[in-house]
Structure formats: C-alpha cells, structure tokens
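Entries read sequence, tokenised fold; example below:

***
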Amino acid sequence: MSGVAAKLSKDRAVAEGLGTNKNPVKYLNQDFEKLRAECLSSKVLFKDDQFPACLSALGYRDLAPNSPKTQGIVWKRPTDICPSPHFIVDGATRADIRQGALGDCWLLAAIACLTLDQDILARVVPENQSFEKDYAGIFHFQFWQYGEWVDVVVDDRLPTKDGHLVFVHSAEGDEFWSALLEKAYAKLNGSYEALTGGSSIEGFEDFTGGISEMYELKKAPADLYQIIQKALKAESLLGCSIDITNAYETEAITSRKLVKGHAYSVTGAEEVPYKGQKEQLIRVRNPWGEVEWTGPWSDEAPEWNSVDPKVKAALDKQADDGEFWMAFTDFVKEYSRLDICNLTPDTLTGNEQHKWNITLFSNSWMRGSTAGGCLNYPATFWTNPQFRIKLEEPDHDHDGSSDEPCCTVIVGLMQKNRRRQKKLGEELLTIGYTLYRVPKELQDQTDVHLSRDFFQKNQSVARSDTFVNMREVSKRVKLPVGDYLIVPSTFEPLKAGDFCLRVFSEKQAKSLEVGDVVKANPLEPKVSEKDVTAEFKSIFEKVAGDKGEVNLKDIQTILNKLLAKRTDLKSKGFSLDTCREMISLMDMDGTWTLNLVEFKTLWLKIQKYMEIFIKMDTDKSGTMDSHEMRAALQDAGFSLNNKIQQSIAHRYSSVDLTVNFDAFISCMMRLETVFKMFKHLDTENSGKIGFTLPEWLSATVV
C-alpha cells in the first residue's frame, strides 16, 4: 500500500513540473545544494553513503569484490591524486576523455559528442562546480531517465591503481569532470561494471532526452537527404561513422582521409547550383579538428571553381577547422551508418519553430496480465498495453496526396532499468511494437481494451523493423491523418518489464492510454421474498434457524452445498476469506449477517459470475488463465485500466498464473464492494472523495 501511495504522490509532483531539466528529480532524495552547504558548514568532505567508495560499487562479475581486476584498487580524491586538480579547464573538450579499464567506449563517444554543443553539455554538467570555490568533495550531474530528468550526486572519491585513475581520465591527468560524470552515470546504473557494452545512442538519449534513429547507409531511404535537412533545422544531433571489419582497422585512415571506426558529426546540408543543376552537399566534422576529406567538394577541390563565389564564401564561413563538405552521394558511399538524436523542446535552447511535439507513456508488461507477447501469440497479444494517438494536422511540407495528407512520427519503445538488473542476471528483453489504424466505427471507444477479434480482422499499417534485444527500438513513419493504435510488446509472452513508449510528431498529436477509464456496471438483481423458490428457502432456513439470518460460516456451508450440485463446474468450494468478501458487499446494516433476500441476491450474482467463469474455463480444468481475466472482467461489467489489471493478476492468480473459481468470485465481490463504497461516498458525483483517517482505516481494513 505504501508503494501505491508513493506512486500517487509522485504523479502529482510530475503534474506540477517535477522531472523537467529545470526542476529535476533528486535521485535517491539527495539534494546537492543542501548536502554541500552542510559539508561546508561542518568543514567535512562529503562521503556518499548511497554509492560508497567500496568494491561493491565497482561491479558484480569481472569487477566483483576479490576478483583479480579489483586487486590493488584504492579510492582517492582528486586532491590526493595530483597537486592542483581542476574540474574543467578552458571548456570541456574531447581531450578530457580517455578510456580506462572499462568497456564503456560507447558512453565516452556520447560524452565526446556532447562537448561539441556547450549548451547541451551545461545541462548535463551543471556549472559552478570546482575544486577551488565552495569545494566540499561533492559534485552533481543531470541525466534523462525514461521521461524525467534526475539530478545525481556523487562524492569525488575515484578508483585508482598505482596512483592513477582506473577508468575515464583526461589527457593531462588534472581535469576531472569526465571521471566524475562517469561515476555519476555508474551510480545511476548500479555499478561501474553495469556500463560495460552498449551503443552511443543510449548515451545520447540519456544526455538529451531525445529519441534516436539509426540508418544503415547501404539501405538508405530515398528521402534521407530531406530527413537530414529537417533534423538539422530541428537542432537534432547527427553522427556518422565507417564500420570496421576487425580491430586493426580502428582509426585506420582511408585513401581520401576518412577515419574508420571514428565518430563524426554531421553539421550541415545545403543544395548549391552547380553546372546548371542542384548539387546536394553535406557538411561533416571530424572532432579531431584535423584529417579532412580530400575527395570532391573538399576544401581545395576543383568543384568549387564552378560555384558562385558568394555561395562558396557563405558556405566557407559556416565551417570550422575539421569540418568539410562532400557530395551527398559520396557521403552515402563512404560512410556506413548515420545516427540522428531528435531533441525535445525541454532540451533545445534555440527559438526556432521546428521542434518536435512529444507524447510519452509509461507502463509495464506483467506476467499473467499485460505481458502478451507479439502477434505470433494471438491468444494473448491483445492483452498488451494499448495506446492511441490522433493525428489531425499534416506536416507543413507533407508529400501525401491532397486527399490523404501525411504526418511524420517517430515511435520509440524503450525498456527501463535493464542495466541496473544486470547483476541479478537479467538481460535485455526482445521488444518491438505494432501500429494499427483505428476504423471510424471504433474511434469513440477509448475506454475499452480492443479485443482479440480486432487484431484477427485488422492488418497493421506499420511496425518496428524487427523485434530485437536493444534498450530502444525506434522508427520514422509517415501516416495519413487519422486515429492510430500502438501495441508495444515483448517477442514472447510472460516476459515482465517496465517500458516507456514515446511518439515524436511534427504537429501536435492527441493521445491516451486505451482502457484508462475505470467504471463498473455489474449485475444488480432486484429480489423480493416472492422471487425465492421453496427449495432455496428451505435450504436457507435449515441453516439460519429461528434467527432468520446467516453468518459467515453459515454462508460458506449453504453456498458449498449449492455449488456441489453444479456438475459443469470443477471447484473445491468457497474459502472463508471469499465469504467475508461476500458479506462485506451484501451486508447493509452492519450486522455481518445476511437475511433471505440478501442471500438470494448474492446467489444470483454468483450464478452470473459462474456462467462467465465456465465460459472462460474452456479446458474444464477448474481454472482460467490470468490473461483471460481481462475478458472475464469485461463480461462482468468492469472496465479497468492496466494498473488495476496488473494488481488483480498479482493478488488473485496462483504461481502458475491461473485463477480458480474461489479466487475469481473473491475478486468480483471485492471489486463490487469498492465501487459501491466509492459511489456511496461520492455524493456530488465528482469522481473524487475525501476520507478522515478513521474512515480510511475502516474502508481499507475491511
């Protein structure tokens, strides 16, 4: 219950602006300013008890305590490593980033690219930190994590061996911003070893909150040049590289002076008049600041002699050292891949009106409830979380027909916290998503989860390229104006995990989680004494006796006798706990007993639920699959969102993810009770109620 309360409290804080880059979440509730002030006041250097300087912070397997690689490691502060340490000297540059004994080159490549944009770097590495003014052994950094920005505090004790930093370090050895940034990111992910292996795209996204696209240039789409131009206008980060076939090719230089296995940045794309035609050029930057392309359109290439001198002068002004122009056709031939990280309005600093609109959903796949697997598993696929987006405004330069204008969207599905779970043996899930166009006749049905029948009758209009075990899968698609359904899933069912689904659209898109409306319309029989048969009355009176009412144990006895007469239902009878739920629902006078009419009404309800259960129990095993609970609940008149569905699956299913008849009836009784209680207390029909503490305890303890 406390976890639920904490989640509700956080949801309210997010609604008030918590989690933006300007107001980040304090990771592990550590407040940098407060902690630094306390240390300065007490004249004691900060020691981080949430990520202590000990062997467990290093790792769990190759860097586990007592492993050979951790022998001789000593944690030291920069003031103990060199005589005059600095946080940043003359701005952050690539020279400040030298890889150590950790396989996190993907992260370092992302950090290096950050140094090319000082505005974005300043968001990740907050200013006013140093080893001189207000030094207290504490530093902080900000990262994007699954829809929110977090501020991560670290102390400056760093792992060393023989007096030198073990992991990231600067070329000169006296600049420490990159080593402390790596430590903060390791803390966020649980350990240094958790950072081993990855893609620089992951770092890009965690440093910007953007959504990434990856293009294999051998399979480049026909409109890639236009995509690049749009991305540059939207201030996206673009990187390109040439694949290597073996380790010996790393940073090998081609005959035209391009470096293999090296991260370049794309900084411009212009079309210039050339010999009566338009030539598509692209500007690329080598972060080394030297070693430039020597082919066509390079700095002194003859092609420039056929270009208007004013055009050439304007393009030359845009290029710094290490930047060069090349024909787009050569770019596609020479480079292997292009990565685009599309930034959010929260990250962008410019005033250009080319920003993406963002929709973000957070949810979970839960075994037995919402972990339905891909389309290969039609019996459960429909139980996955479902999300709707409504595209009403086409792109301002759309290329669809006038009768069916198109909208550009990038859909990204990201699984959460898998690095932190590495030490528990958890690996990345194999994930993907499928996208459907919603027919007009279903566009108003946003409160009901679309059923298996819908997916059997309707073809998808787009999907992620493949199900893959990466942190995120994303794809750019062009869709006609309309209403769409996105279904994110793991490849196989019953794979549990948390995820966030992001949709970037050029124009504003309306969005909602399907089935997020909660309502109930259960069977409410109207019963009087004349509706009670003589046989039923006889059974009741034999147990009730002269008092005319039955108690908890009596109810169990009568119901189990009635249940035993049903040959079409396999059941061991009702437990006392389930009978308590029945009394809680039906007892109107607080006596914890039921009279004949109340008991008959209860029996009619049970019979209705019995019919539903038998319908779902297709193999006559006496149980239903917990995935089938969603359909059963709908038949019973309940519309519940995914969070409630997940709670029900967790509470009422057994370890083999089945629900027996007793548990099913207990669930139905409990749901009816809480809905009835809410309706009774919501006298103004506002959808909100208030409790005093005693009222709250009375309601939740029952």
